[in-house]
Amino acid sequence: MLRYLSFRTLLIIGFALVALTPSAALVQLRYGLAGLTIQAQQQQEQASAWSNASQQTQEQALHLERASRQLLILPETTFFNAAHSANAKLEAAQQIFMHEPLLKESSESIRQLLVQIASNTRQHKAQVNRLFSQLNEQLKNQDQLIELQLAKQRLQWLEGVRSKQKQVDMLAILSPIAALSMAIIMAVMFSWPIARLKLKITQLAQGQRGQDWQLSGPADLQGLAKSLAELDLRLVQLEAQKAQFFRHVSHELKTPLAVIHEASALLQEEVLGSLNTQQKEISAMVQSNVQTLRQRVDALLAHDAGRWLSAELVIAPLLLEPFLAQRLQQWRLLLAKKSLRITLSGLASPSYADHAKLGIILDNLLVNAIRFSPAHSEITIRYGQDGPQSWLEIQDQGPGVNSEDTESIFEPFHCGPAPKGEPAGSGIGLTMARSFAQLMHGDVELIPSSTGACFRLHWQLAQGHL
């Protein structure tokens, strides 16, 4: 479903969900409080009505009792009408209590007593006193029942208020939790595909081609992944074309250079006839420059092939000490020719590396150290590990590197002063060494040294790295 939604849409949905959760609770709380307000108003009106009815009942009961007693003494029509009127008003006042179950029974009892009083107004005084005594008792009970009913209603209203207070407290606690949870969910939904895409872009920058760019996430990321997949395919095609181009260049350059080299060699060896001094100098100049050109073409082709055709890392377990011993064995004749000593120091744990690329790096660093080391001097090789990082340093006792060349020596085709009696280098070796080190998540650096030049190589690869 995410692939149909953009980042903007998802952000709007996320903010809406974060805002709607407490908003819905607040709306519900608002209606609940409005209901409590209406209930309080209704209870107040009911209490006022009951109070008026109770007061009117008490007043009419007094009028009824006074008229009834006067009627016993003097049976006149005026007293009879007054008693009848008070009885009717008292009965009317009791009508309001007939709709309340708790008060209905009490009101019916009072109305029955009123009927008995109305039918006994001309009877014996003791009978009337007994009936009015019962009426007063019923009125007192009714007042108590009214108070109980009003207290019950107030208690129910207070319980409703407390319930709403609990809802407010719960909302105050749950709203930030819900908002934070929603924010975390949305952040994960956004960051996870972005992190995957970032990893794939990093791998693409490191030279890995033909990756699977299928990605779950918003439509924007889907489109970006599709564009990167097209870029990846285009890079694969370009590198294939580049490889084919360099194969042609290799043939087209090296073949005529070989012919020129052989021809100049024939001239130098005077196979076609003797040469004068100037001709010999010119022939030697041509042969020297042809040799230099061949070296630089070979280095250029090797460097470019190393960068573009062999960018894939082949990771394998590495035991550094046996690996160093093997590489040094290949350079034993050159070391012996200058009577150079190799000093090894350090402790390396088993690690991982691309053996071919690590070998090229070491060969370039060792060749430079041998070329610039004076005869009968020493080359020091130190190695070790810092956590997951493996490192190695090669230090010679030569003239060192000028401070202004500290970084430029890693640039392609930058050639510093050559050792006395040796031709200039190709200017590719250190560039290739650094490129391969960076492919292995490391680098080659020139570090300060009291004598000679000291190059430090470090890399970091783990099992299963692609």
Structure description:
Helices cover about 65% and strands about 10% of the residues. It has about 475 residues and is of the alpha+beta class. The chain folds into three domains: about 1-185; about 250-310; about 315-460, 2-Layer Sandwich (Heat Shock Protein 90). The strands form two sheets. The protein has a five-stranded mixed β-sheet with strand order 2-4-5-7-6, covered by helices on one side. A hairpin with a 6-residue loop joins strand 6 (about 445) and strand 7. Helix 1 runs antiparallel to helix 4 (about 125-205) and helix 9 runs antiparallel to helix 10 (about 430-440). The longest helix is centred in the middle third of the chain and has 81 residues, at about 125-205. The radius of gyration is 53 Å and the shape is rod-shaped.
Beta-strand content bin: 5-15%
According to DSSP, the number of beta strands is 7
Q: How many domains? A: 3
What is the typical, i.e. mean, pLDDT? 78
Q: Within the largest sheet, what's the order of strands?
A: 2-4-5-7-6
Rounded to an integer in angstroms, the radius of gyration calculated over CA atoms is 53 Å
Helix content: 55-70%
Distance between the termini: 31 Å
Number of helices: 10
Shape: rod-shaped
How are helices and strands ordered from N to C?
HHHHHHEHHEEHEEHEE
Give the oligomeric state of the chains in this entry, treating copies of one chain as homo and distinct chains as hetero.
single chain
Structural class of the secondary elements? alpha+beta
